Amino acid sequence: KSKEIQKNEAKMHDNFLADISHELKTPVTVIRGSLESLADGVIKNPQDVAAYYRQMLAESQYLQKLIQDLLMISTLKTKEFHLSEVMSDTAMSARGMAMKKKIQFVTQPPENDFVILGDYELIRKLLMLILDNAVKYTESGKSIYYYQTDRGEIVIQDEGAGMDQEALSNIFKRFYRQGKGIERGRSGMGLAIAKEIAVRHQIEIQVESAVGAGTTFTLVFPIDKMHVEK
């Protein structure tokens, strides 16, 4: 059974790398096409030239983000760290995002101090991806709750738009974008990357949602890789 699980995880990882590598081709093609047009003198109008430069800048920024995400998940540096530490770190960043949208960000100190074996930066990335998603789909005046259960599970609960069953079954698929996520700058890779990080750490992501009732993400950590510090 262990070999089968490892085989499936390896297949998921290979598919993920293949898909994101394919996604990298689009910005590279746009940048090269724009540069060729400028170099050949096809584009001469100053306003058009400026527009081409802005497009290339936007594509290069998008390309940089994809590469950073790809490099981040390519290595796994494991060590022990406190979950309360990474939660405090991410809460500070998420609170800033929430404040800009006038969303109330509610946290509470954990009852127990859990220590986990894993990659701090990847776990931080995992939490920030879900928190960013919560802020994105929550309207001003609503709330987001971020806390840890007495069993060490991390919960991110929002009062956002929620999802129907179709969206709920597709959110971890690569390049899936719900609603306004189709706008430029949203690659549809966020939750797919979160899922990949979770798989590499044997973390189970449970999601509950309903249209108009918000969404709750619960991260269940492997018991054999965490303990309570006395």
Briefly characterize the structure.
With 230 residues, this protein is an alpha+beta fold. The chain has six helices and eight strands.
* Basic shape: globular
User: Taking strands numbered 1, 2, ... along the chain, how are they ordered across the largest sheet?
Assistant: 2-4-5-7-6
Q: What portion of the residues fall into strands of 2 or more residues?
A: 15-25%
Give the terminus-to-terminus CA distance.
Answer: 34 Å
Low-confidence stretches: 180-187
Number of strands: 8
Q: Mean pLDDT, as a whole number?
A: 84
Tally of helical runs: 6
Order of helices and strands: HHEHEEHEEHHEEE
Radius of gyration: 20 Å
Structural class: alpha+beta
**Largest sheet features:** 5 strands, mixed
How much helix is in the residues?
Answer: 40-55%
Description:
The protein is α+β, with helices and mostly antiparallel strands. Helices cover about 50% and strands about 15% of the residues. It has 6 helices and 8 strands. It has helices at about 1-40, 45-75, 85-100, 120-135, 165-170, 190-200; strands at about 80, 105, 115-120, 145-150, 155-160, 205-210, 215-220, 225-230. It is globular and about 70 Å long. It starts with a helix and ends with a strand. The relative contact order is 0.13. The model is unreliable at about 180-185 (pLDDT under 50).
